[in-house]
Each structure stands twice: as C-alpha cells, then as structure tokens.
C-alpha cells in the first residue's frame, strides 16, 4: 500500500513528537534539526538535560544582574535580595539554598579560600537571619568573570537537571521555553507542594501536553505572590518569562542552542 507524501510526513512528525499536520513548516524543521544536531553532537555532548536558547540564557542573566556594569557597581559583594532569600553572590547564587560542599566545590580556585570560609558560615540562612548575617561577609568580592564562569559551568547544568526532573518532557519544548522554565526553577527552586506552589505544579501537566500558552499563563499568575510595590522586579521577570514562552515556537539556528 502506497502512502502519500503528506501521510509519510505525518508519520515522521508523530515520531518526532510534534503536531502531525502534514506541513513541513518551522516546527517540523526545528524538530528534524534537533535530531540531526543530537546525532552530530553526541560525542561532544554525551549527556545533557536541556537545549536552551542563547537569547533565553542572556535574558536569565539580565534577570539576575541586569548587566556587567550594574554587577560591578552593586553586586560584586554579597547582597541580601529580600523576602525569603539567603545571602546571594555572583549571578543569583543564593547561599541560603546551597550546601557547604557545593559552595566549596564550585568556588574553590575562583576566589580566595579565606573568602570561601566566610561564605560557608552563612550557608542555609534565609530571610531576616540572612539579612542580619550579611555584615559578616561584606568584605568578600566576586569578580564578574568568576561569577559568569560558575554560572555556566556549575549552576546552569545543575538547575537544568532539576528543571527536567520536575518537568518531564521539558526537553521537547522549543529552546526559548526550556530556557524560561530553567529561569523559573533558578529563581524559585523545585518544590511543587503548597498553596504558594500551585502554579509551579500546574505547569507540569502543561509541559507534558506542550501547551506553551498555558505555561505562560501559570507563570503570570505567580505574580499574586509578591507585592508589586515591594518586589516589582519579580513581576517584570514573570511577564518577560511568559512572553518568551509564548513566542518560543520559532525556527532556531544551530548556533543559537546551548546544551546544558
């Protein structure tokens, strides 16, 4: 029995886990490119959790530090961002949510050992406890290049694994959407239980069904958690993440993709 070109394309689309509309459009071409890229890059990238877009990761850095110039003016030394955060260094590296061994492993060789000893002294402190402890580490200084290197080599791969673990199927979403869910987990962590995590949990089902608009809606709904007058940056961040998710279904150049 002979099959038409459209039927054959639809079978290929189903195998690639994209809509089987029989149209060789950007979504199908991107899916094919991903398969080809994976096969070509398997030796160079033997294991990865996500394929994020460079634009998305650039946006994530901007969420965390605005710009290198702003970093050197305001973030070179440890800060306490407020709320339930811990003391934060580098590019959104929250000491309140890291363990001593992680900090020693990540930062050893990038900053003096004496500074690492000061930083591990505030591990696990959050909220007002972190605020009170900030003076103990204000003498520490983190060069931007060190912060950037730890961000790409240590933080992002770790959070990419966390993102894929709590959102099975995220790796099948477009690269911008993968980057923005990574951004969300980088900012909010992996917990999915409790009233404050209602939207985080709901996203899980939308990821499985690849409903980008629903994912974006849940991200916007999270703004209910923060007073816009006190934490306007989080409202701006959630809107920007949602916008990039909605527009994620586009054609990507191979050079735009980063394996994490």
Kindly name the structural category.
Answer: mainly alpha
* Number of DSSP E strands: 4
Most strands sheet:
2 strands, antiparallel
CATH topology of the largest domain: Lysozyme
- The overall pLDDT average reads 90
Number of helices: 12
- For this structure, the quaternary state is single chain
How would you describe what is shown here?
With 260 residues, the protein is mainly alpha-helical. The chain folds into 3 domains: 5-41, no CATH class; 47-67 and 145-260, Lysozyme; 77-142, no CATH class. The chain contains 12 helices and 4 strands; from the N terminus they run H-H-E-H-H-E-E-H-H-H-H-H-H-H-H-E. It is elongated and about 75 Å long. The N and C termini lie far apart (43 Å). The relative contact order is 0.14.
Brief digest:
With 260 residues, this protein is mainly alpha-helical. It has twelve helices and four strands.
What brief labels describe this structure?
12 helices, Lysozyme, 3 domains, 260 residues, mainly alpha, two-stranded antiparallel ribbon, 4 strands
Task: Annotate the secondary structure layout.
Blueprint: H1 5-16, H2 26-41, E1 51-53, H3 54-65, H4 68-75, E2 88-89, E3 93-94, H5 100-107, H6 113-120, H7 127-133, H8 144-166, H9 175-188, H10 198-208, H11 212-221, H12 232-246, E4 257-259
Antiparallel strand pairs: 1-4, 2-3
